[in-house]
Write the structure tokens for this entry.
Amino acid sequence: MRENFNESMRWLHTYSGLILGWLLFAIFVTGTSAYYKNEITLWMKPEFHKSIADEKTLDIAIDKAIKSINTNDKVSVILPNSRTNLLALRVENSSSKKQDRRRVPTTYYDASSGEKIEDKTKTAGGEFLYRFHFELYNIPRNISRWIVGIATMAMFVAIITGILIHKRIFKDIFTFRPKDNTRGWMDAHILPAVAALPFLIMITYSGLILLGGTLMPWAVKTFYGDNFRAYKQEYIKLHSTDTKKIELLKASIREEEHKKETSIYKTINTKALRENQKSNYSFIRAKRELYKYGYKEENIITKQRLQAILKKADEIWPNNIGSFTLIKEKNNNFLVEISPKVATTIFNYKMQREVAIYDGKTLELIDKSELPILSSSIINTSTTLRSLHEAKFADSTLRFIFFISGILGIILVGTGLILWTQKRKKKNLIKKSFGFWLVEKLNLGTIIGIILALAVYFITNRVIPLDETNRREWEINAFFIAWLFSYVYAFLRDTNKAWKEQLLLTAILFLTLPFINAFTVLNSFSQIFTRDSIFIYFDLFFIFMALVCLLIRFILIRKQRRIK
């Protein structure tokens, strides 16, 4: 009975991983890159590379915010952090239409000089790779999400069955035998699986939950039918009902200010009528009375006040101020909302944000959100899984750990695909199989192809003229053309030779990227070392990828020589 069970699990593990393995490999590659989607988009916009944050950045941000709030009702400032080197500013007006407020443009500034930087490069950036990992490309959204959902379920089945069939799974993490061909590939498959097992279970399960609305839509359809907008409005309303505390605090402050203001104006009006209501003298006297009570015509918020508020917020989140927002109230008072650079809780996501709210006049802390603010355990669980899947709460170190875990997932899927052919290679020598030939070619086109396509994607971004209006389409088309080339080359060329040649080509492309970037973006050689570290890491990653491709090629050549 046990043997039959193990065999069943082994068969299920093999073919749940193989049939959708090529798609899973592409999902893992693009999904892992999505951990740095903001950085990828930043790298693909050359005009942003010159900005470098320094000790003047915060003062520049404060000056920009105070200047902008004079003519606007709301100003949000995002400070540079480990993921961006830019100073970003967004302004809103209550007079604007709701549709316009939803699409508020972001203005970017040089973090050291305060000079405005025009966002000229309309690139596909990291957003394309992020979207591809759960929506693919140019396929109707509902269909593509179903395809990805089925692939994710296959991955989940492969993980569970993999745990069941490996009796000494934890012992195997310390075992690696590269000399024995099949056994070596088995060890290379098991080692990343065990090392990243908690991550793999989390990322697969949370991926399924995030696709739950597509895979299991019946609950929403039962209550809302095809009216998805009504469902979305109810969902937003559920979040907003739990933020009434802040709104009530704001309302009480406004009411107190209004009462005080009314009393003052009664006194002033009485004095003005006694003297001469129409005279300029009475008007000046009235203004002086207003000044005496603190009701000035100019904005209450000043640089000193804002600096004092930011200093107070720094006590809550030491060296972790990420953004601040100035909100102009009807009585010309201000609220200042401050958020941390790095989230301190896993519940910090979109509608539930960590924020400290200060009164711009008294400088007092009005409220500080204690997450989770929602009482719904279902939504809090959903937020937790989404935050884990996307690493929204992670600082730079933890994000890098997620990225490495994603790479282990890529190795797991890739070695699993190759292991299938390695186990059947001897049998194929005796009796040729079309299935074996097809899997071998698809493995090559998928594993090397998408890595090659990424290199071409980045190179295309650099060689296309900056004023090209169809830049986004060119980048995406170049990505898929390069990937298609890899498949065609794999089917037309001897497999062993194609592996070595495509690895060499990919290595050359990645190795040329730092040089292409230097020639197209930098003004002088010294900028290679003085620019923001984000862009230095990109160059190092490109060189690392080239070395990995060359190392794999060297191993393949050495093994072939040993066989001969």
Q: What stands out?
A: Strands lie at 74-78, 86-92, 107-110, 116-117, 321-328, 334-340, 356-359, 365-368.
